[in-house]
Amino acid sequence: MIKNFEFLKENLPGTDIPGKARVKCRYRDLSKFAKVYGFEDPKYVGSKEDGIVACKAWANAITVKSFYILIPATKLTQNGEERPFLLNPNKLLHAGNQYNWEGCVPMKDGDKIISRGKWGKMWLNKDNMILFAELLLTAKNENDETVVKVTTQAAVRPGGY
Fold it and tell me: Which of 40, 68, 85, 114 lies 20 to 30 Å from 129 when distance is taken between CA atoms?
């Protein structure tokens, strides 16, 4: 496992994650999501005709979908053979998010959000051999405007990497 971790730490940080994840913002979903979190402001839960924007919590929907689509897409060549980053998907855990809204536009009904990512730093908790990795995600709307930037952490238990 240490050799696999060292290989991944040497080869992944700074590389693009292949593929993309898509989420469509629909009035019904945005409104319901905001209500679940207790938002009452009409800009989040108002009428469709007046137009609403997504509450900040909506970024969770984008992040989770991106997390589970993009991580399994990563493949590497190790010892002359192609291998996935994730050897066992059952060992993958979502370990947290940090959101950056600087320079971002609000998401709104009808937006088609596309997320792409890059691998960030990686580290290993040697006490329990859990590998931690950062995914640096950028989500943009169909007009190529950034709607959110997310640093999400993945934890992979032994046997998963």
Answer: 68
